[in-house]
Recover the amino acids of this structure.
């Protein structure tokens, strides 16, 4: 299937990169063409279908693949996957600091790699069986389609500026979906390259697979920060572009309050693991029973449940205890 690049604004194009077999369906990669070089924002999985679409798109735009720079909004495999393949000796690959560290450790096909030990052990403590925890990782896109070649990142911090073509972007640290998620804001054109901070038709996954942090609180703070900006058009990492940024932010804030309330109400029946809380929450999935949900989808669902439980915990509305090596949440 040939998908032609779409010109959104002068010299700023969208390339739709297919994500075969993934519920996200497509990644939006943005290409900004300047007189000397082009900037590619996000790349697709490290798999041949994504590389073919990217190569063809750059060809259609007459971009010299030797003269590109890359900006990675965050190091999930659908955004960073091809960065190592696309970058040349002269390319700069910009990315938030923590995510650059993260991807260095994610480059592994081996489930026994120490990088995965932490999340697998945590999954078991949150209620996964040993086999389901290992199976989830084996099927996780971050495990299967991460870059396999080292990437020389140039890290960016909040407020850094990047010029590309006729645009001058400001990097905005917008943690939540990942700890060092970055958006690009162009104040003159009032456009936001949003990565996975804001999507119109689907909700970004807010998960916690570390011992520390409160990603939902971070995400809510990021949304409130973005709400204060003048934004005429959002260019998200997936699905369609949209102009009602503040409406979507309000919807997302309400959505997460509702999800937190749902998680809390499940604990009214007694203490539960995050796995059991996730099993009781409603999900926008085609499976009618939790037992039928594929293990990798359970991984995303439980991660989301943990993020909401942590948020409630920090607000003092629930607490946790340990029982036989498992983390149990209870209403106070
Ligand atoms: Zn994504």
């Amino acid at each position: 299937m040939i998908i032609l690049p779409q010109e959104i604004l002068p010299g700023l194009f969208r390339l739709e990169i297919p994500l075969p077999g993934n519920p996200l369906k497509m990644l939006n990669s943005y290409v900004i063409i300047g007189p000397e070089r082009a900037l590619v924002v996000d790349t697709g999985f490290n798999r041949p279908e994504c590389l073919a679409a990217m190569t063809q798109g750059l060809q259609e735009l007459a971009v010299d693949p030797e003269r590109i720079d890359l900006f990675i909004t965050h190091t999930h495999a659908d955004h960073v996957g091809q960065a190592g393949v696309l970058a040349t000796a002269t390319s700069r690959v910009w990315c938030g600091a923590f995510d650059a560290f993260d991807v260095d450790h994610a480059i592994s096909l081996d489930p026994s790699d120490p990088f995965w030990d932490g999340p697998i052990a945590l999954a078991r403590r949150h209620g996964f069986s040993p086999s389901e925890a290992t199976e989830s990782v084996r099927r996780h896109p971050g495990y299967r389609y991460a870059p396999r070649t080292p990437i020389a990142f140039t890290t960016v911090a909040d407020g850094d500026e990047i010029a590309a073509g006729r645009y001058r972007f400001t990097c905005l640290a917008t943690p939540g979906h990942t700890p060092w998620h970055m958006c690009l804001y162009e104040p003159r054109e009032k456009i936001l390259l949003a990565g996975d901070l804001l999507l119109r038709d689907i909700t970004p996954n807010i998960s916690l697979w570390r011992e520390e942090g409160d990603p939902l609180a971070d995400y809510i703070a990021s949304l409130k920060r973005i709400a204060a900006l003048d934004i005429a058009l959002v260019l998200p990492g997936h699905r369609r572009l949209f102009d009602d940024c503040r409406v979507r932010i309000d919807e997302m804030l309400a959505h997460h309050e509702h999800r937190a309330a749902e998680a809390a109400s499940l604990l009214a029946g007694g203490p539960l693991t995050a796995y059991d809380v996730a099993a009781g929450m409603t999900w926008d999935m085609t499976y009618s029973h939790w037992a039928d949900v594929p293990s990798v989808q359970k991984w995303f669902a439980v991660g989301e449940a943990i993020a909401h439980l942590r948020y409630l915990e920090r607000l003092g509305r629930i607490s946790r205890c340990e029982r036989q090596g498992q983390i149990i949440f209870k209403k106070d």
User: Anything to note?
Assistant: The pocket of zinc ion is lined by residues 76, 78-79, 196, 237-238 (CB under 6 Å). The mean pLDDT is 92. Residues 161 and 170 are 5 Å apart (CA to CA). The two ends are 55 Å apart (CA to CA).
